[in-house]
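SAMPLE LOG
Freezer: B-3
Tube label: C17
Construct: single chain, 287 aa
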Amino acid sequence: MPLLFTVPQSHCVVIERFGKFSRVMKQGLHFTIPIIDTIRHVPEWGAVANKNHRLIELTEQQTDTPARQCHTKDNVSIMANASVYWRIVDPVRALYEVDVLPRSISDIALNALRSNVGAMELDSLLGERQRLNEMISAQLSGTAEKWGVQFTRVEIQEIKTSDATTSAMGQQMEAERKRRAIGSEAEGEAAKRVKVAEAERSATLLRADGEAKALEAMADAELKYLQQLSEVLDRDTAGKILLAQKTLESIEKITSNPAHKVFLPNDLRPMLMLNEEQNRTDSKSVK
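STRUCTURE (predicted):
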């Protein structure tokens, strides 16, 4: 081990003396005692979180877990993997509290992934991936302090279902689309019928209002006509004349269609006489 050495920024070196932990040296120039002091090497970490097997990196690291078969709450088999982002905050714990830190992080991340997938149904799993990320992160946080690391985030990389499950999901989605299309069509038809009913109701009200006004106008005209007749004749004769006129108008209306059979009274002379009387009265009124 050299007498003098430097530690680059965002790195540290763990010094052991006689095989026991001595101190942590962070960035800068450092002095050591050869033979007595030695640098703790971590070749078992590979290229993860260290350089040259002795410089421990304090920056954020990424560990990609291998794909693992999991079963959802509704017993659907899937293959899933995740990326775990973490950083060392206590190099001493990271070296002495866990055997091989990078491998252990991958293992606990896979276990957390499998246990949380088993607590969710497939539909929720596919639609709430962010929730699954948060659940895994929360589960890992209990181990983080013990190992001297901080888990910054977890991201599910892939959730792959079997061919049979994928086919069933496709059929389900197609059925759901058809159901929504039928529902939309039914809603449109219902709205159309409502509009037609409202239009018919408005037209009926308008017709009824027009007929009511027409009847009111006819009633006013007949009242005025009866008053004019009453000025020339007595009230009883005027009423009979008006009744005879209404009878003749009704007969004219019901006999307007040649295809209809109409049975008329045997004797229409009283009505005809009253009609002639009414004509004479009208002539007098004009003079």
